[in-house]
Specification:
The complex is a heterodimer of chains A (341) and B (341).
Chain A: H1 19-41, H2 48-56, H3 59-73, H4 81-96, H5 113-137, H6 142-161, E1 165-166, H7 176-179, H8 189-207, H9 209-219, H10 221-226, H11 231-257, E2 260-261, H12 268-278, H13 290-309, H14 316-339
Helix pairs in contact in A: 1-13, 3-8, 3-9, 3-11, 3-12, 3-13, 4-5, 4-6, 4-11, 5-6, 5-11, 8-9, 12-13, 12-14, 13-14
Chain B: H1 2-8, H2 12-38, H3 55-80, H4 88-104, H5 109-133, H6 138-156, H7 174-181, H8 190-208, H9 210-220, H10 222-227, H11 232-258, H12 269-279, H13 291-309, H14 317-340
The chains are: A mainly alpha (341), B mainly alpha (341).
Chain lengths: 341, 341
């Protein structure tokens, strides 16, 4: 899908846009088109606040999508993020709960909140390290490994919460981070964090060696190894990076709801994968961008919220998701084939 | 795989490895059963006190294993050919709902059964079409249909009701329940014997049939298979249809056992199926694997999950299954490396 030309400076390939920017533009165009279409059909859809909501309601999945996109670009899956969201949230609650509650689900380890967060992040990174160990060292297909670690992470969360949730006996500081509003507006800290992460990710992807090496590894692993890139270590860092984002998302969600719920983030790994695919990230690796992923998320958000606006039953969301991914994949393949004919 | 055959002729070490690879699953099954039989199972009244190996318990385990047992054989052949189907769980749910709808609306057993199997053929054919004709990556294609089939199953059940079941207005006919519950031969229900029949058929197909050989050739080396005149596209398409049919049979068995058509009953089935197939030593990359060993893998997992309920609370299940998936994948990798080195 990618050619050597993608890695050469733009001057040498003339003024032709790269395939990647082309697809990203296509995704942006589709997102805007769908928003306008939904605005034309639905009353009250075309509002600034609605546009903001489309982004802020999806901050968790978009944040997860960053790590997942980077890994997809390097040619690896990460389906463990949903499990990690549950695990880190539950761990942060468990560590922060005061010692000696009335029942098993209300007594934790009584750590100060900051320490609890650090330890919960440690748990998330452990899952990332486990992913890397199995994928890099044992060379087991990443989809199997991360499905397994997803179950392990969620399984640990279920054991700690006895399959339900922990929400009592928490210090007052626990709910602070997830509900903190910024700049005198109603925009919350997690949303700001998502924006910062997106900007950093775009910078890494486009301007830093680390980002370009990720593309190298994805498009031609053998050539990358032969040119002296430590592929295993790079993929390890990507898994840790993705697990760290998922860990932070889990901690913030737990803080927002003041509870550690073992089923939180259920199917989020699939949503993160879906928005990356909608945004033009190729599953074969070496192709895609975080900007595309962001607009992929907008597409999904517009489609699902428009469906709600059209008073379709919530059961429709699964079908709409399927159709959206199918059309996106077919359109991208078709557009690229047409362009490079 | 090919060099494994060459090596196995030479040294003693590799012939031991080959023996282990071929038969370890049967030892594991025996070990698990012996372990559970010797464990102290007095804690719950699930079994007749303290005895794993009594008739009622064995019959019970085999009854609830029927859906998994019927799917795993065809799924093995699909994975041997190097492909995967993540939509089996959703296909199973959709078939279960369709079967229950037919039954509750007065369609007799045989037509209802055949129509549901035809639905399975259709669902499998859609997967095959997406993968073979439209050349969408199997993981993505079946992820799309996972969402699609689940959405359709949820839509078929009317709002406000969780599943299709007997109500004041309409009663489930008696035969609906009998298929999955009522003892026929050896006190085991027809659903279990159906699973056995399908497995026997697939073992014969794999050992003697053209389809089995073509599947292994396609998974071992697709290019060589194509060059030697195998229509690999048709083989893969047929295997997807086969998996669709067995998913429908699994849906019938499950809905019959629970005597309702639950649109969520197949959730997670794809994970369990992948787990038992990997446990049976099937290589994820294709080319290697045996139907009978997956059957054994399914018996192991079902004995473990049921046996586990008597030792630890139910919320340990996800963790144990996830860990089992990782261990199965890792040991697969280690054994196959021993075989080739």
């Amino acid at each position: 899908m990618t050619s050597v030309a993608d890695f050469l400076p733009q001057k040498e390939t003339g003024r032709r846009m790269s395939d990647e920017s082309f697809i990203t533009l296509l995704v942006v165009g589709v997102a805007i088109g769908l928003f306008l279409l939904a605005s034309a059909v639905l009353p009250n859809f075309f509002q600034f606040q609605n546009l903001v909501n489309l982004v802020t309601n999806n901050w968790a999945v978009i944040s997860l999508g960053i790590g997942v996109s980077f890994l997809l670009v390097s040619g690896n899956f990460d389906l463990s993020v949903g499990g990690v969201v549950a695990l880190s949230g539950v761990l942060s609650v468990y560590f922060a709960q005061a010692v000696g509650g009335a029942n098993p689900l209300s007594s934790g380890l009584g750590m100060p909140y900051v320490l609890a967060i650090i330890c919960a992040m440690g748990g998330a990174l452990a899952i990332g390290a486990l992913n890397a160990l199995f994928v890099v060292r044992f060379k087991i297909p990443s989809i199997i490994v991360t499905l397994g670690t997803m179950m392990v992470a969620r399984g640990v969360a279920q054991v700690i919460t006895h399959g339900s949730q922990r929400n009592t006996n928490l210090p007052d500081s626990f709910g602070f981070l997830g509900n903190l509003t910024m700049f005198g507006t109603s925009i919350k800290l997690p949303v700001v964090l998502m924006v910062v992460l997106l900007l950093v990710a775009v910078f890494i992807e486009k301007k830093m060696v680390f980002g370009r090496v990720t593309y190298w590894i994805g498009s031609n692993p053998v050539a990358a190894t032969l040119s002296g890139i430590n592929r295993g270590w790079h993929v390890t860092k990507l898994y840790l990076f993705s697990a760290a984002i998922a860990g932070a998302v889990g901690i913030l969600l737990a803080s927002e709801f003041k509870s550690g719920f073992s089923n939180r983030g259920l199917l989020m790994e699939f949503d993160a994968l879906v928005i990356a695919l909608l945004g033009g990230v190729a599953i074969a690796g070496g192709f895609g961008s975080v900007i595309g992923m962001f607009f992929g998320a907008i597409i999904l958000a517009v489609v699902t919220s428009a469906a709600t606006g059209l008073v379709l039953s919530p059961d429709w969301q699964f079908i709409l998701k399927a159709i959206a991914v199918f059309l996106a994949i077919m359109a991208q393949t078709w557009a690229l084939a047409l362009r490079n004919r | 795989m090919a060099n494994m055959i060459e090596n196995s002729q030479s040294s003693l070490g590799s012939s031991v490895a080959k023996f282990l690879r071929e038969y370890y699953i049967y030892f594991v099954l025996v070990a698990v059963v012996v372990l559970l039989a010797s464990a102290n199972l007095d804690r719950f009244d699930l079994f007749e006190r303290g005895n794993f190996l009594n008739e009622r318990n064995i019959i019970n385990i085999l009854r609830i294993s029927a859906p998994l047992l019927v799917i795993c054989g065809a799924f093995t052949l699909l994975m041997v050919s190097g492909y995967i189907d993540l939509s089996v769980g959703s296909a199973m749910s959709l078939s279960a709902v369709v079967y229950a709808m037919l039954a509750i609306n007065g369609v007799p057993f045989l037509p209802a059964f055949l129509i549901t199997v035809c639905v399975g053929v259709l669902l499998g054919a859609i997967n095959g079409f997406l993968v073979v004709r439209l050349k969408i990556t199997p993981v993505i294609a079946t992820l799309i249909t996972l969402s699609l089939y689940k959405g359709v199953a949820l839509l078929l059940v009317e709002d406000g009701v969780s599943a299709i079941k007997s109500s004041a207005l309409a009663k489930m006919p008696k035969w609906f329940n009998d298929y999955g519950r009522d003892g026929t031969l050896l006190n085991l229900p027809a659903a279990f014997w159906m699973a056995v029949a399908v497995t026997v058929l697939l073992v014969i197909v794999q050992r003697r049939g053209v389809l089995g050989k073509y599947a292994a050739a396609t998974g071992g080396n697709p290019t060589a298979a194509k060059l030697s005149g195998i229509n690999t596209g048709r083989v893969v398409f047929l295997l997807y249809v086969l998996v669709g049919v067995t998913a429908a049979l699994a849906g019938i068995a499950r809905s019959s056992f629970m005597s309702l058509g639950d649109p969520l009953s197949g959730d997670g089935m794809e994970l369990t199926t992948i787990l038992v197939v990997l446990l049976g030593g099937t290589a994820f990359s294709g080319g290697e694997g045996k139907v009978l060993r997956s059957f054994c893998g399914a018996l192991i997992i079902m004995s473990l999950t049921v046996g586990m309920l008597t030792i630890v609370p139910a919320y340990y299940q996800t963790l144990v299954l996830g860990a089992a998936l990782l261990i199965a994948a890792a040991s697969n990798h280690l054994v196959s490396r021993k075989g080739t080195s």
